[in-house]
Description:
Blueprint: E1 3-9, H1 16-29, E2 34-40, H2 54-58, H3 67-75, E3 81-89, E4 92-93, H4 95-103, E5 127-134, H5 141-154, E6 158-159, H6 163-166, E7 170-173, H7 190-226
Parallel strand pairs: 1-2, 1-3, 3-5, 5-6, 5-7
Antiparallel strand pairs: 3-4
Amino acid sequence: MDIRVVGVSGSPRHANTDIMVKEALAAAAEVPGTTTEFVSLANKKISGCVNCRGCVRKGYCVVQDDWQECVRPLIDPVPDGVILGAAVYFFNINSQARAFMERCTSLLKGLFFSEAVQKPPDWSRTVGAGIAVGFDRHGGQEHTISSIIHWFLINNFVCVGGSHIGYIGAPGWLMGENNRDSILRDTELGLKACRIIGRRVAETAALLKAGYEALKGTSRESKRGSNVPEESK
Length: 233
């Protein structure tokens, strides 16, 4: 069974968030049949949503920047798993990641407006997990991961957490440093939680895919059975 997991680093820098997302993807890749793809928002121009509703009329977001390129791996085709990481700024998610999430509203207008021409992506069988890295141990990582999880839930993803290590996701700490690779010292929580969520995303995605295929098979068998004449049963 083929499973595809996309990891998105929402940090404006190529630094610790990238490292954490890649660590999670490496763990996901250990699950047989899993391939991974990494997307970084660093050095990308992504504006927030301005609620112009141009997407309702046109069927796509009319704001032209790098968002279209960055979101494509989440919709073309829809992946089996998504791991979204963000840096903690002012006790919550950084603005680059937030803008990326906001703009996805343009994909969903078909759920709210009958005149919308775009069909929303079906993420109901996609597994999501959140990552956050902050300067302080309790600097807002859980708030940031909560924001990510809320976005997943709004968009019908199935969410997994970090079990007893990261609880709701993978919270990372820069261990009192501010280097681009400081997270490499947070081995007992941050990186360990990344590996846990990475593997859980891939494993849960495989279970969802197998269950869906089994249900489709059962439905086909049921339909075939209903066409059999009663006297031949």
